[in-house]
What we know:
Largest sheet: 3 strands, antiparallel
Number of helices: 5
Shape: rod-shaped
Structural class: alpha+beta
Distance between the termini: 74 Å
Amino acid sequence: MTELDTTAPAEQFFSAESRAALAEASRLLAERLAAHTEALLAMTGDEDAATLYEHNAALEGLVEDWNDAVFEHTGTSPLLLDDAVDDEDEDETEPEHLISVVSRFDLKVVDLNALLEAGRAAQERHPAELDESEQEPVETAEQAIYEISREVGEAWFELPGIEMVAGARAYVVPEPPFESLDADAEDVVTELIAPNGVATHAETWA
């Protein structure tokens, strides 16, 4: 039994009214508990889960009423039910607000030399955190675009020697079932798809 530390006068408790209320709460709880037990014993597992939840909720409410009636009569609470309330509060915390931005740009190389020159210059200004011997030389259009983008971000409209064929970007609010992008995936290309959810905005270029 959990004793309540209270400075209230003793005459506040053990009154005729609190005694009658406790007797009634105990009667209702006993009846509900017997009915609840009979219902559970009769179940086979094929019933709708909602039926079980209804029985549980009815019993839970009477248990709380009985616990309150004991407190009103004696100033003590036989059952510690506050933890259940705390768990409910934790469950009601606001979910994370996630937004997935998915984009694709198709580019046409019209001046490879200009692109490579710009890529090499970008690599020199912002070398990767590798030994000089480990630097990947800028010899392809893909590597040049990578080096330039690593320096200035998405520069699709300003890449030297490049014309944009088409581009698209979508902003998606994910919905369950949602699997977060795996940045460590061996095949990152398979991760570059829009997740399940609602596309709120979209941009296209051609």
